[in-house]
Amino acid sequence: MMGGRAIRVASMVLLCALAAAPVRARASERSETDNEAKRYFRLGTLQFEQGKTKEAIEAIDKALKLNPRYDEAYYYLGFIYMQQSQPAQAIKALKRAVKLNPYYTEAHNQLGLAYRDQGKYKKAMTQFEAALDDKAYRAPEKIHLNIGYLHLKEGKPAEAIPSFQRAVALNPNYLRGILGLAAAYRASGQPDLAAKEYRRVVELGPDTPEAAEARQQLGARDGKRDAS
Predict the structure, then answer these.
(1) CA nearest 143: which of 164, 115, 122, 117?
(2) What are the pLDDT digits (tens) for 85-103?
(3) Together in a domain, 41 and 128
């Protein structure tokens, strides 16, 4: 009796092992496929940094064929298309990224930019607000900056001002935020406040591109005064 029972137990163990073998094999195949997708993704990011945009897109496309659920690859693909001024293509990729990962804050932010560039302002705001929901995001001033410029594009400088003010309050040395605030003051008919912010940019970062832009705006303002 005991011998028969032992045989049955051994047979069951063997059957379980045989059944598990294909599962382990499939898991191993998936792991190798995912690793290959990551290799193509890393190659694509490197190629884009080297200015090889076409090759970068091809590499990331290969990564996505290997792993269609690779949210980071979809995000980076959208980022590349944004840098190439192709918001429609960017939206397609970024929508996929946030669908796969609804908590992908940077993808929401980038998707908001893509919608803004297409003039789809309500959709842009929805994405920026989704990004702001992430209280752990390390650079919320960037999102407030984007919202500020969204309001400027909408022709609402009075609404843009508090957005830029929030950006600067979060990061007092945020030159892009101060430039945005100056632009909003200028658009709202407050040239003196705008000039004050432009001078602040020059004081904080005299050798930066932002300071060069601020000097240009201050020069244009002084030129208008001289002409009058």
Answers:
(1) 164
(2) 999 999 999 999 999 999 9
(3) yes
